[in-house]
Amino acid sequence: MFLTAKILVYALSGFIRVATGFDIGLSTKCVVIPKEMGMCHKIGYSEMRLPNLMGHTSMAEVILKSTTWQHLVHTDCHPHVRTFLCSLFAPICLDTFIHPCRSMCVAVRDSCAPVLACHGHPWPDSLDCDRFPAGEDMCLASLTKEHKHLHKVLPKPACQACPAVDDFFTHKRVLEVFCDNNFAVKVKLSKKRTVFGDQEYNIECQVEFITQGLLLPYETQSMIQQWLLINENCTQRMTPTHRPMVYLLVGNIEEGSVLVNQVYRWQRRDSQLNLATQKWRYHKCL
């Protein structure tokens, strides 16, 4: 038990304040975090308490309810979303429960509720932030101010109407669109069904160009992956079958938001898109 506690403090350095305080008054047991709870793997500990802080009394219930949140975790809507959810669904097996602080809940809610709204879901009552401790001396807190300045704040993908997919175009028109935007990313999409019947997407990105500030290619790739997960209705339209599809997403990063304005279907041996991306290096916009 002591070793487990040390691992938690090491893994969540900057979050934890004091591991004392709140219990739900139930007889609990330590169980291994199941493989089906992928979002709570590699978080610094491997055993959880059951019942958990959501009141789930069986592992089957924990797995069923937690899988509905894995998609939100994949969107990276907040740096602490995984820590927050796992502290509730898979609380570390210590002598007492460690609740997330209200401040962490509010921070995660404010960033992630718009993502849920984009999918047509409200922030649930079961995660009402008022149920968590208001102070930060007996709960799981957000990163300290000293750590915050080390975290680079990236633009947020916007929830938006799906851009039309263009199948017919000339390389000259594509170059004009490039000039009106500040990024273009080639994306390979494929989908599969999980054991629970949900859709999962494999997303591979290649940055063709980015002209916005100091963003690096891998940061741009990550933002486009998040955009595709947040705007899942668009991703569904772009993957009508289980066959991999390739697209070019063109858009703007403005005032801290990522917007996709144009989508081109990149078909095999498509000379016009290939020509446009090759000419772009030497193209001068009017």
Structure explained in plain terms:
The protein is α/β, with parallel strands linked by helices and 286 residues long. It contains 9 helices and 8 strands. The chain has helices at 2-11, 59-74, 81-89, 102-118, 145-148, 171-179, 217-230, 232-238, 271-280; strands at 29-32, 47-50, 156-157, 165-166, 183-193, 199-210, 245-254, 257-265. Strands 3, 4, 5, 6, 7 and 8 form a 6-stranded mixed β-sheet that branches. β5 (183-193) and β6 (199-210) form a beta hairpin. α6 (171-179) packs across α9 and α7 crosses α8. The chain starts with a helix and ends in a 6-residue tail after the last helix. Mean pLDDT is 84; it is low at 1-24 and 144-150.
Largest sheet: 6 strands, mixed
Helix content: 25-40%
Mean pLDDT: 84
Estimated radius of gyration = 22 Å
- What is the element string, with H for helices and E for strands? HEEHHHHEEHEEHHEEH
Instruction: Please report the total strand number as a whole number.
Output: 8
Termini separation comes to: 67 Å
Low-confidence parts: 1-24, 144-150
List keywords for this structure.
about 35% helix; elongated; about 290 residues; alpha/beta; disordered N terminus
Topology:
Layout: H1 2-11, E1 29-32, E2 47-50, H2 59-74, H3 81-89, H4 102-118, H5 145-148, E3 156-157, E4 165-166, H6 171-179, E5 183-193, E6 199-210, H7 217-230, H8 232-238, E7 245-254, E8 257-265, H9 271-280
Parallel strand pairs: 3-8, 4-8
Antiparallel strand pairs: 1-2, 5-6, 5-7, 7-8
Helix pairs in contact: 2-3, 6-9, 7-8
